[in-house]
Design brief:
Blueprint: E1 2-8, E2 11-17, H1 23-30, E3 50-52, E4 55-57, E5 71-73, H2 85-92, H3 102-115, H4 121-128, H5 138-154
Parallel strand pairs: 1-5
Antiparallel strand pairs: 1-2, 3-4, 3-5
Enzyme class: oxidoreductase
EC number: 1.3.99.16
GO molecular function, one term: metal ion binding
Length: about 160
């Protein structure tokens, strides 16, 4: 066991855990942050997608060791000042069916829109291709990303 200190959703946290323990299990089982979902455990489904230092990443395959001084943001930390425009667009487009993959989908969409303010359909499909939705809401996900892009460009939304 070792002590690991990092920033989680804007707050410094200190956890005791083995160096090689998956950050996903630290988040869920140690810190009680359950937005990132366990889907596959090998980084291919995207259900746990969160941000590490502003970039999308998969906590299920990232060990807690080596996070010192780094910043992790999960879906819980996304809209600290209210709904983030991507969350708002998700609701307006009625994207979610079962909702299991949605935190990861939203975090991937936020990362995309940070890099590309006006993504094409091809850009969206490429950026989101590693996030699996078993309900098949891909058309609504694309529509929500386009709506969120408009909201972000207009300055709307609280996040």
């Amino acid at each position: 066991m070792a002590a690991h200190q990092f920033i989680l959703n804007g707050q410094t946290v200190l956890v005791e855990a083995p160096e090689d323990l998956s950050l996903l299990w630290v988040l869920r089982d140690v810190l009680g942050v359950t937005g990132p979902k366990y889907g596959c455990g090998v980084g291919v489904c995207g259900a746990c997608t969160s941000h590490l230092d502003g970039e999308a990443f998969r906590p299920c395959i990232h060990p807690v060791g080596g996070l010192s001084g780094r910043e992790v943001v999960t879906i819980e930390g996304l809209g600290a000042q209210g709904l983030h425009p991507v969350q708002q667009a998700w609701m307006e487009e009625d994207v979610a069916q079962c909702g299991f993959c949605q935190p990861g989908q939203i975090m991937a969409a936020v990362a995309l829109l940070k890099k590309n303010a006006q993504p094409s359909d091809a850009d969206i499909d490429a950026a989101m291709s590693d996030n699996v939705c078993r309900c098949g809401t891909y058309v609504r996900i694309r529509a929500a990303i386009k709506r969120a892009a408009l909201l972000l460009r207009s300055g709307a939304g609280g996040g």
